[in-house]
């Protein structure tokens, strides 16, 4: 599947967010890969925007980077500071 330019920008933006958070914690790609239970080369590919990350791996990364999932996806937490609930709204 070929990605559109907009999709590629989203992947690059996500990767940059991972890199910024990783560096802010003083972690190498290898250290993050151990914390998230992911391969180091996968972390590098994500940071360069070469991979389309799965939901489960987003959760692993958020936990390893000590941030809510919303920080990785939206760039900011929900207004109440919590992650979205698993239940759909009424």
Task: Explain how this protein is built.
α2 crosses α3. By secondary structure, the chain is mainly α. The chain is built from 5 helices and no strands. It is globular.
List the keywords.
90 residues; 0% strand; globular; 58% helix; mainly alpha; single chain; 5 helices; disordered C terminus
Q: Residue-averaged pLDDT, rounded? A: 87
The count of β-strands is: 0
The helicity comes to: 55-70%
Distance between the termini: 35 Å
Classify the beta-strand content into a percent band.
under 5%
Shape by Cα distribution = globular
Oligomer: single chain
Write down the secondary-structure element order: HHHHH
Helix/sheet category = mainly alpha
Short characterization:
By secondary structure, this protein is an all-alpha fold. 58% of the residues lie in helices and 0% in strands. α2 (29-36) packs across α3 (40-47).
What are the SSEs and their pairings?
Layout: H1 5-24, H2 29-36, H3 40-47, H4 55-65, H5 69-73
Helix pairs in contact: 2-3
């Amino acid at each position: 599947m070929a990605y559109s330019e907009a999709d590629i920008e989203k992947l690059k933006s996500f990767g940059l967010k991972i890199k910024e958070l990783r560096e802010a914690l003083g972690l190498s790609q290898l250290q993050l890969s151990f914390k998230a239970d992911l391969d180091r080369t996968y972390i590098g590919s994500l940071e360069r925007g070469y991979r389309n990350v799965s939901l489960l791996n987003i959760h692993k990364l958020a936990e390893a980077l000590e941030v809510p999932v919303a920080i990785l996806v939206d760039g900011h937490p929900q207004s109440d500071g919590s992650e979205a609930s698993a239940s759909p709204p009424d």
